[in-house]
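User: I'm curious whether this sequence folds into something compact or stays loose and floppy. Could you predict its structure so I can see for myself?
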Amino acid sequence: MDRTQRNLWLAFLGEAKANRMYLAYALKALEEGHPEVAAVFMEAAGAETIHALSHLRALGEVRSTLENLQAVTEGEAYEFETMYPKFIAEAEADGRPDAAQSFRLALEGEKEHLRRFLEALRHLEAKTGRRAPTTPRRQRTASPPTPAVSMEPPSPAMRELATEKERVAALTRLREVIFGMQDGLVTAATVGPAVAAATASKTTVLVAGLAAILGGTMSMAAGSFLGSQAERHVQEAELAHEAWEIETKPEEEMAELIELYRLEGFPYEQARQMAERVAADKASWLRVMAEKELGISPDVLSEPAKDALAMGISYLAGGILPLLPFLAGVSGLAILASILTAAATLFVMGAVKGKLVRRNPILSGAQITAIGSAVATAAYFLGRLAPA
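Assistant: Here's the prediction. I'll summarize afterward.
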């Protein structure tokens, strides 16, 4: 399941849950004699229903009536035959007769729903002359049980997995390096040729170029630091909220974790066993919930100082290179050498990036070179138009 599909399911479950809760709150408000508050709850419940239906359509779960009937009969049969009987037995074992009674009430309802859905399905099959599909709408492929924890020394493959997140984090910082160096190169290859085209003073070209590069270095490093810091603050706030929910609402979080595993294709019992194993350790529970629900890895958070350093150094390095030809003087050859230096560096940088991220190095280098060269060349002709 891809990320957006998972997010749609999570959004649907959240909206559906909110709808039921708001309706319950509205009934309680009416019971206490507050119809004006109940109206607010009812209005919100209606809006949540609209959102949930929109998510469900985007998921592709609303199909033909024949397929819909087949899907609900499978779901109702599972709840009637397996899920609620197990819930009732566990509630009684836990000394919760109120929950057991609620489950029994639902079980009777599921029995009647199943009877009526099967009757409607047979009627529709006879009416259309078509048979409903015999496979579930969402395939639930069984997986082998999770093996017990081994006490043997970690294998090379396990050691590689342990460092994989750090490797990905380092590659993510490649964004700062590419962004910084490309911006520095383009800035210097813009300012240098532009000023050189308008004046014959070597000092003027170098001072203008260095001023632009040093100012850009500080600005880009500060911007990278603040942006990365804001991202980390958001990540930490989300993790803190998730930890609070695990601490204060463990049953609800457990239900969410089970559903997350079910959305990945595991049958209910296996999803439940996996969730219980994870929840045995709160640190592991938080890590799994953060990764599956929030898309955040607690082990690899943003590092503002490192991001800023990578941005600043790469911007400065990229900016110095196109200015080097002007140390020998201002001429058409120096201008050409500056642009070619920037273009060649852009190509090498793009090729290295392509190799690191397992893309075609030639195409990656050509893409970055084309963008940077176009900007630098345009700047040269703008400089030619400027008054001497």
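Summary: The chain has three domains: 1-62, 64-133, 169-385. The CA atoms of residues 179 and 259 lie 39 Å apart.
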